Amino acid sequence: MISFGINLRNIISYTQESRNLNNIRILSKLGIRLFDIYGEPLLVSDVNRELVTALKRQDINTQRYILSHLQG
Fold first, then answer.
1. What are residue 41's DSSP bridge partners?
2. For the chain, what are the domain ranges?
3. DSSP the chain
């Protein structure tokens, strides 16, 4: 399990509310969608599940790099 002492749900919520372009770019490179086709935020729990799954596919150094660059 990924444990870096950060709350991914908080980062997702922050990114959806602020539309932080840096975070959106990082997450989109992982194939994570934050918004539906109408621009409405997707459920944080669904996005969190996708993000954790995507991070598990990465090696530990890539995980650390991604998580260190997410703002929130």
1. 35
2. 8-69
3. ---SS--HHHHHHHHHHHT-HHHHHHHHHTT---B-TTSPBPPHHHHHHHHHHHHHTS-HHHHHHHHHH---
Token look-up 């980062």 returns: 11
Q: What pLDDT, in 10s, does the model give residues 9-59?
A: 999 999 999 999 999 999 999 999 999 999 999 999 999 999 999 999 999
Q: Which of 5, 10, 2 is nearest to 71 (CA)?
A: 10
d(CA 38, CA 48): 20
pTM: 0.84
Query: By the 8 A CB rule, do 55 and 63 touch?
Result: yes
